[in-house]
Structures are given as structure tokens and as C-alpha cells.
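Work Package 3 (structural annotation) set out to generate three-dimensional models for the target panel prioritized at the project kickoff. During this period the team completed the workflow that converts sequence records into C-alpha cells, so that structures can be stored uniformly alongside our sequence database. As a representative example, we reproduce one entry of 178 residues exactly as it appears in the project archive.
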Amino acid sequence: MSAEIQRVNMADESYQETWKEIQRSRSVCFKINHTDPMEPECRELLHELIPNMPDTSNIMAPMQIDMGKNMKLGEHVFINHSLTVMARGGVEIEDGVMIGPNASILTANHDFDDHMVLLVGKVHIKKNAWIGANTSILAGVTVGENAVVAAGAVVTKDVPRDTVVGGNPARVIKQLGN
């Protein structure tokens, strides 16, 4: 994995700031999920949830994103409905990425020995990647440029550029192009 996994103790006082962002994001997601998607207010709420979200990118409701301030989206990103993101470790989605319905991006997991400790790592999805429906991308994973993650895949390791992966756990199915 290219991203480092860090240990975060949920009992630390510093976790209170994280909890405030989780509450803020949950409230904004609730509003988005209950607003007519054709109303300008819906777009305004998306910008409130994810600061600096480009106007050329879109996330279809409903969604659940726990820490919108920890997300960075590039230009021309399209994310279909029912997205779940646990963004404690950070999520970066570069230009031209498409994500199918019911995808999960999970940057945190609990330590087996101490459930009050989170293991967090950034998820980075590079330019023009295509993430299929019902996929899970786990903490610390980088999906390479032009890569395809097949529907239903559980991605536990980095995906090389120009590669198709699928399965649980995801494995290389084929190389693309050239």
C-alpha cells in the first residue's frame, strides 16, 4: 500500500474535533438526502459538505459521508447514488473518475486488540479510474490512473494504473491498452 496506516485512539481529547466534523457532515448529508436534487439548494449543500468541490463534479443522493472536509474531488468526477464514505484518513478523487452506485470508501477500521483504536489510511483514486457498483475500497489503497475496479470488488491493496481488478479480495483480471 502506498498510504501509511496510522493509529488513532478514539479516547484522546483530540478526537472531539473529529466528532464535531462527523456531526456536521451527518447533518449536511441528511439535508442533501431530503432535498429535491433539481433545486439549487442541493448543489449548495454539496459545496457545504465538501469544501472546494468543483462545479463540474457531482455526487447523487442519497449518500452518507462522515467527514466531508477530509475529501478532495477533482474536475468532472461523477459518483452515483448510495455512496458511503468514512473519510477519517482522507479521500482524494482525481479528475475524470466515475463511481457506480452503492460504493463504499472506508479509510478507517478498528484494531483487533483494542477497539477504541482506529487504523486509518488515505484512499487515493487517480485520474480516469472507473469504480464499479457495490464496491468497497479499504484504508490505505491507491487506485491507479485509468484503472477499473469491477462491480462487487473488495479492494484491499493498491491497484496499478491501466489494470482491471475484481473479486474479494480484488485481484488483477487483465491489463488495459497499449
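The chain has a mean pLDDT of 95.
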